[in-house]
Structure formats: structure tokens, C-alpha cells
Amino acid sequence: ELQLVESGGGLEQPGRSLRLSCAASGFNFDDFAMHWVRQAPGKGLEWVSGLSWNSDAKGYADSVKGRFTISRDNAKNSLFLQMNSLRPEDTAFYFCVREMTSNTSSGAGSWFDPWGRGTLVTVSS
Amino acid sequence: SYELTQPPSVSVSPGQTARIICSGDALPIQFAYWYQQKPGQAPVLVIYRDTERPSGIPERFSGSSSGTIATLTISGVQAEDEADYHCQSADSSGTSPWVFGGGTKLTVL
Question: Is the pLDDT score of B95 beyond 90?
């Protein structure tokens, strides 16, 4: 069964750090790019960061660039998000997601499937 | 930055057809993807590449796209379909591949 399980969330003060982890199972982890997507309470979804299968390519949303670092350990089927200089606006559920891609004569595209259950990060003094 | 626009809410009675739209300037050249999110749960993919339905998703869920509008259609809506629905797509250049709409709350009356 495909499964992504996040951990590491919690309550932290502004300016401090948190490290999120995601444990993957049920698929060949090192065949896929992985991402973090967040959702502030009562709000929509926001892509945060993504990392290629071999860690050669990574990207960040402007809102977290320079503060968050994504990484992975393929030997341990794990994805991480180091979150530094936390701000109240970082408060959200953080979901670990697998990237799926297709490239056919009809065109190319990518989407997320499956999603983990998420871990809640609360930034407040 | 690129934006996808969805109506905040849609309401239908059981058995009726619900249509949820997603508007974006790049939709004529980019695929749309749809996720269902029930309260307290993670999103689940229900439509990919405009019209494709993943295995395990009921046939009453379908997708279409024309011009700058992508549409998620739920035929014969059931009470269990009450959820938030999020569209996702990319900007015209593909430099922002994972942009989400604001989400639409589907209420089954």
C-alpha cells in the first residue's frame, strides 16, 4: 500500500526552527521527485518545495526561499524539510506528496499522488 | 504570479449534477488536475490530465477543459461527495508547475 507519513510538526516560536520528516513506503522512493505542500487553517493549498529523485534539482516557493531547505535520504525512504526563521504565516498543515509525471503526444504535466495525512506546524509566541 | 480561480462554494441536492469550475489563462495549453479533500483528511486525486480518472475513483466524477475554463463534474451527487475540491495546473511557461486554485466547498443539501 502506498503510504506517506509525516512527523515533526508542533508549536514553535517565531524565529526558531523545525525539521519535518516524511517516511515513504509501498513504492520505489528513489524513482520519484517528492514535494511539500502546505495548507493554512481554513485556506487553500500552497506548493512549498520540491526535490528530484537524485537531489540534483530543487525548488522553493518565494515565501520560503532562503529559510527552508528540502532534502532526502533514498536509503531510508525519507524526505525532510528544515524550516528556519519561522514566521507566524508559516502556520499550516504540511503535506508530503509524491510527484507523478506524464509526457505524451497530448502534452506534458505533473501532479501529486498520493498525499500524506499531514503534520501541523504552529508558529506563535 | 499565476492564479487559478474557483468559486468559493457550490451547492446541489443529492442526485443532481455538480459542476465546479477553475479559471486560468494558461489552461488552453496546460492540463488541469483535481483533488477532493474531506474535513480533517488529506487531499485525494480525482481527475488528472483534464479528463483522466484514477483507479478507484467513482465514474460519477469526470473532468473537461475548454479554453480558459476547466470543469469538474460530479453526476448523481451523493452525500459522501461533500468536500472541498481544489484544482491545480501550471503557468504558460511551465516555470510554476504546481499552482492551486483557492478551493471550492461542495455542499450536498
Answer: no
CB atoms near residue A105 (< 10 Å): 4
Out of A95, A106, A109, whose CB is closest to B42?
Answer: A95
A96 touches chain B (CB under 8 A): no
Cα–Cα distance for residue pair B78/A63, rounded to 1 Å? 38
Measuring CA to CA, how many Å separate B41 from each of A27, A96, B35, B109?
22, 13, 12, 21
Tabulate helix, strand, coil % of chain A (nearest 5).
Answer: 5, 55, 35
Q: What number is the average pLDDT over the span A2-20?
A: 97
Q: Note whether A66 and A83 are within 8 A (CB).
A: no
CA of B34: which chain A residue's CA is closest?
A111
Query: What percentage of chain B has pLDDT greater than the value 90?
Result: 92
Calculate Rg over the CA atoms of chain B.
13
Q: In this predicted structure, what is the pLDDT of residue A104?
A: 82
Residue pointed to by grid coordinates 508559516: A90
pLDDT in tens, B21-60: 999 999 999 999 999 999 989 999 999 999 999 999 999 9
**B 48-107 residues with CB below 8 A of A?**
48-49, 54, 86, 88, 90, 94, 97-103
Please return the burial class of B49, using the count of CB atoms within 10 Å of its CB with bins 0-12, 13-18 and 19+.
Answer: middle
Residues 6+ apart with CB under 8 A from B10: B18, B19, B20, B104, B105, B106, B107
